[in-house]
Amino acid sequence: MAEHKHGSMDTREQEKTFDGFVRWVVWGAGISIGILVFVALVNA
To answer: How far apart are CA 6 and CA 20, in angstroms?
Structure first.
């Protein structure tokens, strides 16, 4: 089994993927809230 050294793994690609995921979640939540507000105003 290979020797593991704590803190030696390159995580740049994982960080980019996570940043993209967070960006999509924020946009999706904003759009969903916007649609809900629009529907609430139209049906009021």
So the answer is: 26
Q: Return d(Cα 18, Cα 39) in angstroms, integer.
A: 31
pLDDT of residue 42: 97
Structure tokens at 43: 């049906």
Report how far residue 28's alpha carbon sits from residue 21's, in angstroms, rounded to the nearest whole number. Answer: 10
Q: What is the pLDDT of residues 10-29, one digit of tens each?
A: 889 999 999 999 999 999 99
Q: CA 39 to CA 27: how far, in whole Å? A: 18
Greater model confidence, 9 or 25: 25
How far is the C-alpha of 37 from the C-alpha of 31, rounded, in Å? 10
